[in-house]
Amino acid sequence: MSILRKDEFSLRQTMVRPDFECYHYLDQVAPEVDFHEHEFYEVFFFLSGNVSYNIEGRTYLLRPGDILLTDNKDIHKPEVTPGKPYERYVVWITPEFLQEQEKYGPNLTDCFKDASRKEYKLIRPDGKAVAHLKSILDKILECRESSEFGSSTLEYIYLNEFMVFLNRAYFSTPDTIPEDITENEKINKVVAYINENLAEDLSLDRLAEVCFISKSYLSHQFKQYTGLSLVQFIIKKRLTVARNMIQEGTPVMEACMECGFNDYSNFHKAFKKEFGVSPKEFRSVR
Q: Taking the complete model, does pTM exceed 0.70, yes or no?
């Protein structure tokens, strides 16, 4: 297994453009990727490999052609087992860009919003839809390499086409495909409670009480299903939501308090460790 260097991993997780990115990756050696999150929407289009993908406590066993949707709050990680080439497309799109496209017609963010509402991130399109979506992404990548007149315009046209058919595929997929998902309903409830109550007391004692779970069961099972300890998950989630709030214009101190950090110095230190810049530096470049 190949472990991505920190700079290589950071490069693979960072948008260069202000609107959207599209990549086609093929790793012959399985990379090891840590838990992470993005400032943008991600479409993960799986083509080959031995991969299970953990998104906030649910682990999806992927089949070729599967698509995962994550938003800018989801903590996620692929688990790649050696043995097969690991091939996938990755599309990153800023929420602002998709919202801008809404003036032309349907809400292209609907698939992401509905997946977040259902807390179910998997699309399993039929063969025809997979081939069509793949062909559109190939056109986007071809345009990115082209210097012909209008290539950059075609990129945006193809992206909108991709998002239309992605939404169609999403809303045509059955609500759940349970045979390829590993999850624990009790842990799902804990994760949901954390996501909805970031400013509240999220101590082990409190979570065990409100979710009707023993503390020992919660401690052990939470790490087993999410891949992170309870404390690690809560801090990462609070920082992620605070970052999004700051990006949207919320004052730094207000984001700090609303996400459950009662001490600014601890928030500052944790934020800089997680994102590489202080909260105020992050705000200044946005």
A: yes
